[in-house]
């Protein structure tokens, strides 16, 4: 390694909070900032270094805050600006940084800029958005919006359409306007001045677009814009920046996470998350997971970004189903499964992200349609009913892929509403909270929580986590996920049985002379010649 010091975020673990579902302090059924402050000690116990906070800005909540009406204020359902400052301070005191979620591709249609923009074609804010003339009958082209319908919405007063890639209440901002870009950079600096530790950039790949040519993302303007933003706002205060980029392939990711710091610290790429989806179709159109392919994806990313970029590591976020339900067993072997997924991911190179409740092994929930709240689900139900899908197909799709799975309230204890609220929760609580909850797990050594805490601690103790080179093992095995990471100090062996059967352990010889750091079963009842259902082990051998 060079003499340059390692940035803090390369040895950090980041915890994502979905504020609405984390902890409610005032009984209105919606999680809030004082609620988060009250749980900082819990997060300190877990050992995380930073919190990525999904949006808490002022918003009509059409897409749960991903539709921002004022980038410089906090929504009253979450608290106040003073409360936010207090959160930043209280977190800092516990060695935790706050990462804010910047939604810069679009604003809310209730943002002052958009209200102004709609007034007239020569309003100074008109060009902050993307408009095309038309007749109100035929939109400029066929582009479709993420949450249903055309990407073009007619505004009769102006005789123009505006462009929106997500809901109609999320008009796209016009990044080709330098004044808009300056205004956004000022806002980012304003937050950094308040002591923010970094930013997550929503749909960063969509910032460069060319709708007239049918291009919604990754237009040639994209990377120049990201570099400009980085120059103007990110190169200060050791900020960490992570872009969400569903379209990112390895070459794109190398640009975004270039070690020269010209763009971002890292991106979320989603190749492993598209594994159960028919290519070119929607997330609801599913195929069984090809396990060997899943391993190949991880291997490719681990190898390609080694020394050339930086990976973000995750199984879950607020848009994805729960990982135990999706990739492993959320029934009999739920605990072992959750630990297995954690061990596999945390042994890799990159910055791990833990999504609230993942550290408890929280699961999906079989929603009824009328209990769903997510705009994406509700839109899918409408579209798929029209296409002739049965109710059974629809419920199955929601159960397996719906975003509300991740958004059920955090399960704190076994009291009413899982200790999340004293009121009526905005989204129902998963009834398994009596069994799966933080109060039960924090002090218990064999819990999923303790496994996460141990992994987070270990990552700071051994340099092999930071810079060990990745070597896949048993690549064609259909049940075992195994790899080794090695650097000058030692070598880490991770082996995981991704099945519900007890199988022979083909890596027994490799394990000799190494020490078990953490496993998904208690070490004491270990029979080394086999791997039990969802058994994962992380072993270390140190060079002398
Ligand atoms: O998600 C980006 C995005 O493309 C989503 O539509 C994604 O495909 C979908 O959630 C998968 O189920 C980001 C945010 O993470 C998401 O919560 C927002 O709804 C979206 O942007 C719009 O801001
Ligand atoms: Ca509240």
How many E strands? 20
Structural class: alpha/beta
Low-confidence stretches: none
CATH architectural arrangement of the largest domain: Alpha-Beta Barrel
Largest sheet: 8 strands, parallel
Under CATH, the homologous superfamily of the largest domain reads Glycosidases
What level of helicity do the residues show? Answer: 25-40%
Query: What is the molecular shape?
Result: globular
Q: Strands across the major sheet, in which order? A: 11-10-9-5-2-1-13-12
Rg: 23 Å
User: Can you give the mean pLDDT?
Assistant: 97
3D structure, described in words:
- The chain is an alpha/beta fold.
- The protein folds into three domains: 9-104 and 178-448, Alpha-Beta Barrel (TIM Barrel), CATH 3.20.20.80; 112-163, Alpha-Beta Complex (Oligo-1,6-glucosidase, domain 2), CATH 3.90.400.10; 469-542, Golgi alpha-mannosidase II (Immunoglobulin-like).
- 28% of the residues lie in helices and 16% in strands.
- The chain contains 17 helices and 20 strands.
- The chain has helices at 33-38, 40-46, 81-93, 112-117, 178-193, 222-234, 250-256, 291-304, 323-327, 334-346, 375-386, 391-401, 404-407, 438-441, 448-461, 464-467, 508-511; strands at 14-17, 50-53, 57-58, 70-74, 97-102, 131-133, 152-155, 160-163, 198-201, 240-244, 266-268, 312-313, 351-355, 469-473, 480-487, 490-497, 503-504, 515-519, 530-531, 536-542.
- The chain has an eight-stranded parallel β-sheet with strand order 11-10-9-5-2-1-13-12, with helices on one face. The chain has a five-stranded antiparallel β-sheet with strand order 14-15-16-20-18. Strands 6-8-7 form a three-stranded antiparallel β-sheet, with no helix packed on it.
- Helix 7 links the parallel strand 10 (240-244) and strand 11.
- Helix 5 (178-193) runs parallel beside helix 6 (222-234).
- The radius of gyration is 23 Å and the shape is globular.
- The two termini are 20 Å apart.
- The model has no long low-confidence stretch (mean pLDDT 97).
- The chain binds 1-O-alpha-D-glucopyranosyl-D-fructose and calcium ion (CA).
- Residues 24-26, 28, 30, 32 line the site of calcium ion (CA).
